[in-house]
Amino acid sequence: MMKVEIFQPGAEHRAAFLAAVQRSESLLGGWVSPPDTPEKYADYLRRYSADTHYSYLARTRDGNLVGCINLNEIVRGALQSAYLGYHAFSPNQGKGLMKEALSAVISSAFGEHELHRLEANIQSGNVRSVGLAKSMGFRLEGYSPRYLKIDGEWRDHERYAITSEDWAVEAAAARDQSKDS
């Protein structure tokens, strides 16, 4: 049985989201800049109401927010690709919950959204995030100097990617492993 559920955020989740961002400030600082005011949260909802962006929140069965996973800049046509971004919320990091949530979103990206490729750009010093991407089957494809501006600073990132074919192999291996447990 899944320990988390994913859902698309709405106005009714604002208070819980902003509280999660506030209590996670030391965890998130320097890595990502999630919405931290009601105005920024409203902008976030507007951005993710477009067909080129999807956002998912993950929560435990008792309603505690685990993290946020975004599919950004979806390109259709011959590419069928998106940028994947994610971050956990305290105190739920390091418990395997984001891996479960990320697995559900990736399955949705390659299934429901019919994408072929996801790319995750991660700062190399973010060891936990790099480890999570690798554990999901993402492969390192390159290095992008001064790729993203975070907290007013241009940050270098490593570029990881996975295709729907790679994910099918990962998902099958995970199913086989759960049968053996």
From TrEMBL:
Q: Give the matching InterPro entries.
A: Acyl_CoA_acyltransferase (IPR016181), GNAT_dom (IPR000182), N-acetyltransferase (IPR051531)
Q: Which Pfam families match?
A: Acetyltransf_3
Q: Which UniProt keywords apply?
A: Acyltransferase, Transferase
Entry keyword annotation includes Transferase = yes
Q: Which domain of life is it from?
A: Bacteria
Q: What is this protein called?
A: GNAT family N-acetyltransferase
N-acetyltransferase domain boundaries: 11-165
A Gene Ontology molecular function term of the record: protein-N-terminal-alanine acetyltransferase activity
Q: Which family does it belong to?
A: Belongs to the acetyltransferase family. RimJ subfamily.
Q: Which GO terms describe its cellular component?
A: cytoplasm
